[in-house]
Amino acid sequence: MTADLEPIAPHEAVKMYHDAMRDEHAESTRRSEKHRLRAFVQFCDEEGIENLNDLSGRDLYKYRTWRREGHGDDREPIKLVTLKGQLASVRRFLRFAANIDAVPAELYEQVTLPTMKNGEDVSNSTLKPERAVDILDYLENAQPASRDHIIVMLLWRTGARTGAIRGLDLRDLDLDGSHPRVSGPAIHFVHRPDTGTPLKNQEKGTRWNRISEKTARYLEDYIEYHRPDVTDDHGREPLITTEYGRPAGNTLRKTLYRVTRPCWRGEPCPHERDPDECEATHLDHASKCPSARSPHDLRSGRVTFYRREDVPRRVVKDRLNASEDILDRHYDRRSDREQAEQRTDYLPDL
Length: 350
Prior knowledge:
The chain is mainly α. The chain has two domains: 101 residues, DNA polymerase, domain 1, CATH 1.10.150.130; 168 residues, hpI Integrase, Chain A. The chain is built from 13 helices and three strands; from the N terminus they run H-H-H-H-H-H-H-E-E-E-H-H-H-H-H-H. Strands 1-2-3 form a three-stranded antiparallel β-sheet, with no helix packed on it. Helix 5 runs antiparallel to helix 6. The longest helix has 21 residues. The radius of gyration is 23 Å and the shape is globular. It starts with 9 loop residues before the first helix and ends in a 6-residue tail after the last helix. This is Integrase family protein.
């Protein structure tokens, strides 16, 4: 142990790290970091590391192997991209730990990250635009202006993240187009960290998004006929509500998992499963359906739709509040052939 270090238990240091993150990071980021470091604390418990001062480079190597083999919450070997994310969280935590005199300043450098091959750290999962449109059409006919319909419609029409949709209040809607800075109906996404609804990019994420007249009318019907008239814990009036107030963070995610299952719309199962025996037919296990898709998948499908329609990159970037690099790497799912064919539209005959 280095003489300048001050003893502290791993779980106490992690708790301090999470508390420090409140000043600069969105809730979703803090939640992800907390989940990733849970395994690290478990490893320290199993290895008998009661004082973080005693953590060594050899321990960090053992943790890498322990995590790769699936110890912790996963119970099975994890993918390389998942391992990279887990180790990156440990590196960030150790840099913080050095600042509070819990570990040597250079210890974080001994956490080496796996080298990813080209594109290996990018998920290929997406909700194809055609499927998204079919699901939305089904909801418009079967459950118009229901909460499910509104959630899917807003995620698809705006391309926004679930946290941004969840954070909308009634006051953020300009359904009659009366706002002087926006022509036509629009939605205002606002960063409100003090009352539980931060945006991922914080103040930079605050923006107006235009919506169609049709979308505005569905929102009006939802508010009048289906929205429970409740407030959240901060006295705000959420747009998307449950009977108890603003929904939990994973409610929108669970909605997407549920409505993207083919059997939910009465379609045959493409995976040759018996609906009476398939666990994914139960609402709490909808994500286990191979066809179920997350909000991130819907967002990538929306980007692909915009790119197919040749919407300018700057417009897509501003509407979805993401950099062009992130859009290209993580959201654009056009095939190489599609991209080549679109490029020919802007090139002279060769």
